[in-house]
Amino acid sequence: MTDLTPAHTIKRSGHWDDAHDCCVLTYDERFLRRKRLLTARNQGFLVDLPHTESLNHGDAFQLEDGKLIEVIAAEEALLEITGDDLVRLAWHIGNRHCPCQVEPTRLLIQNDHVIRDMLGKLGATLRDVSEPFIPEGGAYGHGRTHSHAH
User: What's the pLDDT tens digit per position in 48-83?
Assistant: First the structure.
């Protein structure tokens, strides 16, 4: 049995205030159901949700004692994509079901050598960057994208 304070609830960004602490997580780490995590102040807590959740930057875990732990998107190695036809490049990224952060002048994806090669052949300008990754949600705005087999 664990003596860690559990978190059974997620409060979505914009629907809470006054965080007690924060937890910095990568994109992959923000997809979870049950896991022991550490806050920025090194406080351990146990995420124990009813089902797997996709967490966004600005969401918060609500601990059983009522305290809120804000979710912060961690810096991670990403591929920045720019070019003359971002819409076409975004289509090719989406066609491969890659999570993508869409901005007016660039796209960001997790660094993948196969996708990098494809985008280079399509004329994209590519640059390695390290920053928080906050990709678009899946269809209908429900978190992660999934394969067609879900």
Answer: 999 999 999 999 999 999 999 999 999 999 999 999
CA distance 130 to 26: 11
Could you give the angle at which helices 86-95 and 113-121 cross, rounded to 10 degrees?
A: 140
Please, which contacts does 97-103 make with residues 24 or more away whose CB atoms are closer than 8 Å? 97/145, 97/146, 97/147, 99/27, 99/133, 99/135, 99/136, 99/144, 99/145, 100/135, 100/136, 101/133, 101/134, 101/135, 101/136, 102/135, 102/136
Determine the 3-state secondary structure of 95 from DSSP: helix
The average pLDDT across 29-58 equals: 96
CATH class entry, domain 5-73: mainly beta
The dihedral sign for the CA sequence 109, 146, 104, 25: negative
76-141 CATH: 3.30.70.790
Q: Where in the chain is the domain with CATH 2.60.260.20?
A: 5-73
Taking the model in full, what pTM does it have?
Answer: 0.85
Span(s) in the chain for CATH 3.30.70.790: 76-141
Judged by DSSP in three states, 30 sits in helix
